[in-house]
Amino acid sequence: MKAIIAAAALGSIGLPATAQEVRFEVQYRDLDLTTAEGQDRLEKWIETAARKACGLDAHATGTRIRSRQAQGCVTELRAKARAQFAVIVASEGKGG
C-alpha cells in the first residue's frame, strides 16, 4: 500500500491572471495512525505541506499581509488532504 496523501488545487499563485495547479504529497508510512499522536503528527505535516505548496508563509516586499489566493489555496488543499486522511484513519482503525 502506498502511504502517501496527495492533494491538488487550482489556484492563482503570483500574478492574478495566472492559474496553476498546486500539489503536495505527505508520506505517512512511519506513523501509527491508530494513535492520537500519529494522527496529530500527520495533521501537522498536512498543514505544513499545504502552506508551503501555496506560498502562504512567503512575504511580499513591503507587506506582512498574506494573499487571499494563498489562503484560499491552503484551505482547499487542507480540505482535500483531510478527506483522504479521514478515510485512511478509518481504514487503519478497522485493521486495514
Strand order of the largest sheet: 1-2
Please compute the radius of gyration using only Cα atoms. 15 Å
Mean pLDDT over the residues: 77
Structural class comes to: alpha+beta
Biggest sheet overview: 2 strands, antiparallel
Number of domains: 1
Give the count of helical stretches: 2
Number of strands: 2
Apparent shape:
elongated
Uncertain spans, ≥5 residues at pLDDT below 50?
11-17
The helicity comes to: 40-55%
InterPro entries: UrcA_uranyl
Keywords: Signal
Signal peptide: 1-19
Protein name: UrcA family protein
Detailed description of the structure:
This is UrcA family protein. Keywords: Signal. It comes from Qipengyuania vulgaris. InterPro entries: UrcA_uranyl. The protein is an alpha+beta fold and 96 residues long. It has a two-stranded antiparallel ribbon. The chain is built from two helices and two strands. It starts with a strand and ends with a helix. It has one domain.
